[in-house]
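FAQ: What does a ligand-bound record look like?

Like this one, built around adenosine-5'-triphosphate:
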Amino acid sequence: MIQLSNVTKQFVSGERVVCQVFRDIDYNIDASCSISISGRSGSGKSTLLRMLAGLDLNYLGDYYFKRNKLEKNIEKMATHRLKHIGIVTQKYQLLSDRNCYDNIAFPLKCLKHDKKTIKNKVEEIMELLDLNEFKDRYPYELSGGQCQRIAIARAIVKSPDILLADEPTGALDKASEYEILKIFDLLISKGQTLVVATHSDVVAKHCTSNYIIEDYKIQSIK
Ligand SMILES: Nc1ncnc2c1ncn2[C@@H]1O[C@H](COP(=O)(O)OP(=O)(O)OP(=O)(O)O)[C@@H](O)[C@H]1O
Ligand SMILES: [Mg+2]
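The answer part, i.e. the structure of the complex:
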């Protein structure tokens, strides 16, 4: 579904290479697979997800989506992301001045869906993820685990082709991690393509393929 072809990623400051992250990688994510990405802190997990999301365009190499090469242009990538990619981060990044319903509805409003469609889709996803009790609550009235469940609902309400999650359980206790894993299992069983960066072996075990970032490459873990 997404292919990174011949990609080299460095952070540079003027002439100086501050950090080499990837060197000549080819990485292909197939539809309906669930992938964990591990690697030591600083190995490049978040950088990879930002590249897959089209948030980081500053690298050598090409980005293909469903075999089409996409231009590394900020506006075009933003449109691509809004239509096709759901993102969940460790810090949830919910809109603090909107309740849970409006947080989940937000991407659909950006996509200019009509009110009735938005209502139906938000209610469907709240039912699916068992979030009805939080409908009218604001993010500051929720626990971290509950915020994360709302963030996942917001990421998947638009039925993205791929869900990217960057350490989604990193800030959570075991019980909340379990709640998130239940949601991932449900999504995986429905064929959702998922890429999750994680330090947790428990999270990795829920995925069908496991990769590690090492020596500037992304390697499959057998
Ligand atoms: N803006 C930047 N400028 C320079 N170097 C950067 C920048 N952002 C990240 N890096 C470097 O790129 C490397 C990869 O960072 P990244 O955040 O992707 O690591 P990570 O695997 O997600 O780590 P963690 O497990 O701690 O979240 C790190 O060594 C980091 O120092
Ligand atoms: Mg990271």
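Follow-up question: can I read anything off the structure? Yes, for example: The beta strands are 2-13, 16-29, 34-38, 60-65, 68-70, 85-88, 162-166, 193-197, 209-214, 217-220.
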